[in-house]
Specification:
With 235 residues, the chain is of the alpha+beta class. It has a domain at 118-223: Immunoglobulin-like (Sandwich). The chain has helices at residues 3-35, 40-114, 169-172, and strands at 118-128, 134-144, 151-161, 166-168, 180-184, 187-195, 202-211, 218-223. Strands 3, 4, 5, 7 and 8 form a five-stranded antiparallel sheet that branches. The protein is rod-shaped.
């Protein structure tokens, strides 16, 4: 056999020797790592666990970031709501102070006109009801009090006719009440429904009110005028 025909076989043997040497070296390397506590399977498993842990931590971090963002928005909303509430309270306090000043002013006017502590009928209105010969009588009582006192008592009225006859409240009020209670600090409007007989021609009203049980009654007289109607006798 010639020199040339033996060369390929020699090359293969050399390659095999090299591969065997490399395998021995790598095997020795792995054996050394195994002896020292290193395992390639364990390393791969640990790598997978680390990637999973990293993914979990990333998701938790994103969740915390979203919650922090939501909390920040909530804090801004709370601060705005608190600011709005404080502004509203300031406006209400200013409005209350303005109304208190107006009340003191009007109380002073009423006191100068009627005297302090005076209770009186400030206004009386008669309005037609839905049914014929039925009316709503509105009596407005006012008190010119210098202190925060409450006036209590009763009020009643009599309707007089052109021929001199008259009807008491109990005669024309559906519940036949003789008097109506009141309780006021500054003013109160009392509304009562009445029904007049067909042949009764009203001319005026005598309003009588008393403060307390044993006080002397006070009387005021008003004309019978129905709102929205001409001043002509009823037919």
């Amino acid at each position: 056999m010639s020199e040339e025909s033996r060369k390929p076989g020699s090359r293969w043997r050399i390659a095999l020797v090299v591969l065997a040497a490399l395998a021995l070296v790598y095997g020795g390397f792995e054996l050394g790592r195994a002896v020292s506590g290193y395992s390639i399977v364990g390393a791969l498993s640990e790598g997978i666990e680390l990637r999973s842990l990293n993914r979990t931590l990333t998701e938790e971090n994103e969740s915390l970031r979203r919650r922090a963002s939501t909390a920040e928005v909530g804090q801004r909303v709370d601060r705005q709501a608190q600011s709005d509430a404080q502004m509203m309270m300031g406006e209400l306090q200013a409005e209350t102070a303005r109304q208190q000043q107006e009340l003191q002013f009007y109380r002073g006017l009423v006191a100068r006109q009627f005297g302090a502590g005076t209770l009186r009928v400030q206004e009386l209105k008669v309005r037609a009801a839905e049914e014929e010969r039925q009316f709503r009588v509105l009596v407005t009582l006012v008190q010119a009090a210098t202190r925060e006192s409450v006036a209590t008592g009763t009020v009643t009225f009599t309707v007089k006719s052109a021929d001199g006859s008259s009807l008491q409240l109990a005669d024309i009020e559906p519940e036949q009440r003789r008097e109506l209670p009141f309780s006021l600090r500054y003013f109160q409007q009392i509304e009562v429904r009445v029904e007049l007989p067909p042949d009764f021609q009203p001319l005026g009203l005598d309003v009588e009110y008393r403060r307390g049980r044993n006080a002397e009654p006070v009387r005021q007289t008003f004309p019978w005028r129905v709102e929205g109607e001409a001043d002509v006798p009823l037919q």
